[in-house]
Amino acid sequence: xxxxxxxxxxxxxxxxxxxxxxxxxxxxxxxxxxxxxxxxxxxxxxxxxxxxxxxxxxxxxxxxxxxxxxxxxxxxxxxxxxxxxxxxxxxxxxxxxxxxxxxxxxxxxxxxxxxxxxxxxxxxxxxxxxxxxxxxxxxxxxxxxxxxxxxxxxxxxxxxxxxxxxxxxxxxxxxxxxxxxxxxxxxxxxxxxxxxxxxxxxxxxxxxxxxxxxxxxxxxxxxxxxxxxxxxxxxxxxxxxxxxxxxxxxxxxxxxx
Length: 257
Description:
mainly alpha; 11 helices; disordered N terminus
């Protein structure tokens, strides 16, 4: 018993000593100084360069805050995420795959599909702007041209005519003359329509399978057994046998070419 008490006392003393050494080293460490960021501007400043830099910074922060909306409304993300969500509902797997997987897969498929557009924006707008070959306004115009070309290729003429009519704009001489404020909502509703059309085609085989299982259970007198519990394994089996992910993802990617 005495030996155990002495061991406990020794261990406690060592622990206190280590804690004191650690605290002393922490106190002795130099303090981390953070740089000060000041976005203020005096009222009587006469330096236009500082004012221009501050305005550019504010514009950049505004664009970054709108980046999610720009990604949703001007790329292939909308169609992909809706189709994958409808596929999950058609399978009846509730939350499998989870939302994080669907959104992540939709994002990477969007980057894959939009890679040629992003490369054009980088080569025609960003690089010349960084090398000070073009101004900021010219860079915005050159960056918008590839994105506008992509949206014009996917938008339906009926939807585009609707927003041109609502905006009371003159009929443009060529599609490239349409403003982005008119093109983006027309592209959005066109993508929604296309996504629901694809989702309807995905729903059909699974709906037929549900009807077959429900009729079989009804004929067997098993009315208390939910048909979805019986049809779910058959849906998964059918989806795996036809290699559903390969077909759906391949069809989605090819629908943008």
